[in-house]
Each structure stands twice: as C-alpha cells, then as structure tokens.
Specification:
157 residues; alpha+beta; elongated
C-alpha cells in the first residue's frame, strides 16, 4: 500500500512528540501508542521484539532503570522520508540530564521506521554502537557522582 508523504510526516511528528513526552515523564505508553499491535522492534543491544506487549515488557522497566532513566531527551539530528516505501531513516541523539557540570552527554543511533497507515508504525530498528553508549553513560555517571557525593542515584542519600 502507498501512503502520502503528509500521512507519514504527521505520524512521524506524533512519534517524535510521544518519545519526547515519554523521556520527560517516564510514561512509555504514549510512545508505544505509535505502533501497531504486531510491531517488529529490533534493538541491537537488547534483542528483537515481536508485538507491542513484548516491546512494553522490555522498554518500560529498562527506561525506568538507573541511570538509563536519566536519558530523557531524544532529538532527531536529521531524517529522510521515502514516501513511496513508507520508510523513515534518521539519526537520533540520546541525551542524558545535566549531571551538574553543564556538559551535554549524548550518543547517537540511527533509526529505521516502517509506516503502516492510520498514524502507526509497524517496525522500528535502532542501530548503534553499544560500546559508545556505554562510554557515554560511564562518563555521565562519573560526572554525576563528582557533583553529588554520597548519593548513589537521584533521591538517595
């Protein structure tokens, strides 16, 4: 089936808004609402998920886990839309909260989305270097501990 560029762009705008809200609030249900029930989600570090329920069972607890819960912003650096095939590809920055030093801690991934119609996506694949993410998170954790001595995580003492 062929979709209009306008349909794909509207769904993509909603997807980006939902990801921003999920990062800001920790409510990943708004993000999951961007997908079909039978979504195929490929995450190269965590694995492959078939169906919204499987994605939920992974993403909700994972994104609530310290320090991943401090990765709260997901701006797209660039994207392209192939309207003929219903595909979006682009680069997303995964940005951590400020640990107290005023520096930005970010790592990027490339994401491929497949549009399924009705404002929903049927596939997502996130491609990145897990070692790069690990280094970024470790640097962020060191900075956080340097600026919050005696605390293991926010809210602890």
């Amino acid at each position: 089936m062929t979709y209009t560029r306008g349909d794909i762009e509207a769904a993509f705008d909603h997807y980006r808004s939902a990801a921003a809200e999920a990062g800001r609030t920790g409510n990943w249900e708004v993000f999951l609402d961007c997908f079909t029930d039978d979504v195929h989600y490929v995450e190269h570090h965590y694995g492959e998920f078939h169906g919204k329920k499987a994605v939920r069972e992974w993403i909700v607890p994972e994104m609530a886990r310290w320090p991943i819960n401090q990765m709260q912003s997901y701006p797209w650096d660039w994207h392209v839309i192939d309207a003929e095939n219903g595909v979006i590809v682009g680069q997303i920055a995964n940005v951590m909260t400020d640990p107290g030093d005023g520096k930005e801690y970010r790592a990027v991934n490339w994401t491929r989305l497949i549009y399924a119609g009705d404002g929903l996506f049927s596939e997502e694949e996130d491609i990145y270097n897990p070692a790069e993410f690990g280094e970024m998170v470790m640097a962020w954790m060191k900075a956080w501990k340097d600026h919050h001595p005696g605390q293991d995580s926010p809210g602890s003492s």
